[in-house]
């Protein structure tokens, strides 16, 4: 598997850079002592031609709060989604079974990333991200292109009755004593209800439980995480192609405080 996975329909957008890390780049969890700009995150950003020093990370809490980001902000605590209309401002969030979701408005242009586990999905985090793009930048939902990254799929995600009851029955199936929840389908439905066109919602289709190359909290609950990063390209700059990553490219960083 490649170091970075991309959704073809998002890669086709000239003003957008995006990617989902695999474990060949290492774990994307934050460092000890609040260090957030870890060597792995630096390497991931660089592999997409993005400046690691400008990364802004969502300090996700499984809610539906959205932050507008106008300049590099390090860690934004307490939010599971971020929006920006500034070029060259890469937004990063980590995941390990939860779905990273990228929303892109090519007309404006503007960008949102959201972290959608069952709690965030039930709280409406992708709907909140669409609404933030409308409110902050005048985006029209019908113009948005959406991408769902890797996550635990509907064949693998077993939940109890109390979680299953929070979701539309179309996204839930019975299995044995429990239920299977299709979180990707739940997020698709939420995006469509928010006005995003069905044919503009795309899925990577990789399952974190099934792929050993992806971080899964359920398969390996040791804190290993993958990450999603997305940024608007600087106008007129035709880069953003994958830069070559040299091994040892990244001297151990000392005390990046978050
Ligand atoms: Zn699966």
Essential attributes:
disordered C terminus, globular, 6-stranded mixed β-sheet, 15 strands, CNF1/YfiH-like putative cysteine hydrolases, alpha/beta
Tally of separate domains: 1
Give the helix/strand class: alpha/beta
The CATH architecture can be given as: 4-Layer Sandwich
Q: What oligomeric arrangement do these chains adopt?
A: single chain
Strand content: 25-35%
Bound molecules: zinc ion
- Examine the coordinates and then state which fold CATH places here, giving the name of the CATH topology: CNF1/YfiH-like putative cysteine hydrolases
Helical stretch count? Answer: 6
Terminal CA distance reads 31 Å
Q: Total strand count, please?
A: 15
Helix content class? 10-25%
CATH class: Alpha Beta
Report on the biggest sheet.
6 strands, mixed
H/E element string?
EHEHEEEEEEEHHEEHEEHEE
Shape: globular
- Please state the average pLDDT score: 91
- Strand order, main sheet: write it out: 1-2-15-7-3-5
CATH homologous superfamily title: CNF1/YfiH-like putative cysteine hydrolases
Description:
The protein is an alpha/beta fold. The chain has a single domain (4-152, 201-232), classed as 4-Layer Sandwich (CNF1/YfiH-like putative cysteine hydrolases). It is 18% helix and 26% strand. It has helices at 8-11, 39-47, 118-123, 125-137, 161-164, 183-193, and strands at residues 4-5, 16-21, 56-59, 66-68, 74-77, 81-84, 91-95, 99-105, 110-116, 145-148, 158-159, 172-175, 178-181, 201-203, 226-232. The strands form 3 sheets. Strands 1-2-15-7-3-5 form a 6-stranded mixed sheet, with helices on one face. The longest helix has 13 residues, at 125-137. It is globular. Bound molecules: zinc ion. Zinc ion binds next to loops.
């Amino acid at each position: 598997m490649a170091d970075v996975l991309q959704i073809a329909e998002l890669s086709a957008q000239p003003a957008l850079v995006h990617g989902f890390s695999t474990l060949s780049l290492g774990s994307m969890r934050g460092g000890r002592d609040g260090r957030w700009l870890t060597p792995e995150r630096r390497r991931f950003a660089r592999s997409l031609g993005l400046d690691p020093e400008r990364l802004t990370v969502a300090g996700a809490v499984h809610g539906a709060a959205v932050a507008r980001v106008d300049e590099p902000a390090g860690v934004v605590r307490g939010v599971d989604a971020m929006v920006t209309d500034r070029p060259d401002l890469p937004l990063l969030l980590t995941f390990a079974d939860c779905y990273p979701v990228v929303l892109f408005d090519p007309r404006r242009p503007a960008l949102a990333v959201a972290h959608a586990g069952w709690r965030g999905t039930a709280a409406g985090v992708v709907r909140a991200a669409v609404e933030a793009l409308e409110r902050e930048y005048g985006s029209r939902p019908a113009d948005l292109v959406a991408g769902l990254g890797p996550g635990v799929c509907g064949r693998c995600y077993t939940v109890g009755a109390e979680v299953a009851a929070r979701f539309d029955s179309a996204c839930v199936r019975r299995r044995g004593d429990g239920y299977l929840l299709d979180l990707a389908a739940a997020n698709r439905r939420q995006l469509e209800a928010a006005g995003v066109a069905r044919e503009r919602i795309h899925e990577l289709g990789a399952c974190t439980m099934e792929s050993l190359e992806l971080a899964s909290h359920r398969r390996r609950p040791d804190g290993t995480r993958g990450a999603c990063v997305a940024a608007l390209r600087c106008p007129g700059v035709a880069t953003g192609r994958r830069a070559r990553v040299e091994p040892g490219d990244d001297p151990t960083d000392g005390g990046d405080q978050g």
